[in-house]
Amino acid sequence: MFRILSCFVLFAVVCSFVYAAEPVTKPFKAIILPEGALHPDGMTVCPKTGDIILAVPVVGKKGNARLLKIDKNDNVSSYFELKAHPETGRVTPLGISFGPDGNLYVADSQCLGGNPNHKSRILRVVHENGKPVKEEVLVTGIVQANGLEIFGNKIYIAETQIDPQIVETPFTSGVFAFDIAEFRGDLPLRVLPYGKDPHFIFSFQTADADRSGEWKVGANGIGLAKDGTLYVANFGDKTIIEVKMDVERKVLSHRNLNDGKGPHESVDGMKVCPMGYIFFADYVGNSVCVMNPANGKTVLLAKNPVNPDGDAKRAGALDRCSEVCLRGDKLYVANIDLNDNNEPHTISVIDLKGIDFVKLMK
């Protein structure tokens, strides 16, 4: 997941950890993607089959975009083709997640595709008998749709920027929340401008003060714990925001889990494991990290130099990674590679077996 927005004044957790200079492990293999799968990003595990569904956006280019399937043996095949926006001629799927209805929900980031003028959307790939059969447009008017996760019937989607043109920092971003029950009848819904739409549940600011605003990216990846706690990446400020809600999914409080310091240089796509630890991609630092939300401790899990050559990528090297996905004891990492875009295009795979996370994250 790439580029996200802002944050209210949040509680800072002061961490006194000595961060390890060396990564705990490294990717052990790469999944080579088909020709034309240029910028792999969002991933989710199908709850019925155990297959990973992968979004492959056509960043900045016109045309349709593919969703791919990675089966349990890591074989890659085509899953579904998303149609280009009728006005922009582009579709840029980032965050994806299955809902309780068995359908797949998709964040279409038209801003990353080249048009920031409130053209981003939420799409639904309707499934019948477990197979994708058609595409529906559910929501329009978003500036930059990014990370997307689902808890119960609630869809949470990161709005990386509320303003089509970011000039100065700090700037604002945040999260929309929709109920699947809303997506009936007269569709698509169109969101109102910032501050007017009730679906916009909270916002925060991004300053990137350490780098003088070099990375103007706010809300990015989204993760959900099994108790429904929501986690949102503040990309530019290198922090993760914890959002607590009541039983009706109304926001009660939110706070920074760390002070932005640690072994990482950004926070991009994320997933929360059953133990409650947050695994996330660090696009800027070309690394993967894991954070304990209980104490803010962040550990460097794997890291590679930026822009690895083809041989290194075939061996599993990270290449401007943007998203992670947990399946069993393996962590799959999407290498979006927005800079050089050199072949092959890959998913890096990290084996988590044998790592004592309870000890590691104390």
Derived structural class: mainly beta
Q: How many H/I helices?
A: 3
Query: What average pLDDT do the residues reach?
Result: 92
Low-confidence stretches: 1-18
Provide key terms for this protein.
mainly beta; 362 residues; 4-stranded antiparallel beta sheet; 5-stranded mixed beta sheet; disordered N terminus; globular; 4% helix
Gist?
The chain has 362 residues and is mainly β.
Q: Could you describe the 3D structure shown?
A:
The protein is globular, with a radius of gyration of 18 Å. The protein is about 5% helix and about 40% strand. The longest helix has 5 residues, at about 310-315. By secondary structure, the protein is mainly beta. The chain contains 3 helices and 25 strands. The protein has helices at about 110-115, 310-315, 355-360, and strands spanning about 30, 45, 50-55, 65-70, 75-80, 95-100, 105-110, 120-130, 130-140, 145-150, 155-160, 170-180, 190, 200-205, 220-225, 230-235, 240-245, 250-255, 270, 280, 285-290, 300-305, 320-325, 330-335, 345-350.
List strands and helices in order, with pairings.
Layout: E1 29-32, E2 43-45, E3 52-56, E4 65-70, E5 76-82, E6 93-98, E7 104-108, H1 110-113, E8 120-128, E9 131-142, E10 145-151, E11 154-159, E12 171-179, E13 189-190, E14 200-206, E15 219-224, E16 230-234, E17 239-245, E18 251-256, E19 270-272, E20 278-282, E21 287-291, E22 298-303, H2 310-314, E23 321-327, E24 330-335, E25 346-351, H3 357-360
Parallel strand pairs: 9-13
Antiparallel strand pairs: 1-25, 2-3, 3-4, 4-5, 6-7, 7-8, 8-9, 10-11, 11-12, 12-14, 15-16, 16-17, 17-18, 19-20, 20-21, 21-22, 23-24, 24-25
